């Protein structure tokens, strides 16, 4: 499937999730992510503030702050560049041109300092290819992070598609965490779930 079609199909799947089910899936993704993070040693973590139909990241951000991690979030500067800015508990957030909440802080964190990068996904496949919003912001950003940085995508399992035709500029993820599993390069372990993975 071409990326445009994938975005459309996943958009429909996202709309069909009932609020109570979403809450339940959010908790499963959160538990699986915590399990993954407990296996990693890291200090600086990049994450983002989720939109209503995305996996909820508020719970994740609160957890990271409680664990005394340095948290940074994306901020759009110079109209099309994404930088990482520090976010501390109780800091103000404001909406950018895409309606996404971003930190007010101008304190930039160099991408080289980021140990774990948590990114949004529209769709993914078993080879850890990612489809995003279609503007390539994360592809450009992920090229700047250090070699040691673990690139983690979070998604609902229904965002999995058979195959994504990746372009040269697309950056693959190291791990994908869903409500059903934690998918690693060439390896997967089943996370917290009560459903069979039929995909
Ligand atoms: P997304 O990753 O958001 O799903 P795409 O991978 O389809 O989106 O990329 C969208 C556009 O972003 C591309 O057509 C390209 O113009 C631009 N782009 C992405 N990555 C780069 C890059 N590293 N350098 C230059 N342009 C890029
Ligand atoms: Mg891309």
TrEMBL record:
Residues reported in the UniProt entry to bind ATP: 3-7, 130-138
Chain sites annotated for binding substrate: 49, 54
Top-level division of the source organism's lineage: Bacteria
Keywords: ATP-binding, Ligase, Magnesium, Metal-binding, Nucleotide-binding
SUPFAM superfamilies: NagB/RpiA/CoA transferase-like
One GO MF term attached to the UniProt entry: 5-formyltetrahydrofolate cyclo-ligase activity
Catalyzed reaction equations: (6S)-5-formyl-5,6,7,8-tetrahydrofolate + ATP = (6R)-5,10-methenyltetrahydrofolate + ADP + phosphate
Family membership noted in the UniProt record: Belongs to the 5-formyltetrahydrofolate cyclo-ligase family.
Protein name: 5-formyltetrahydrofolate cyclo-ligase
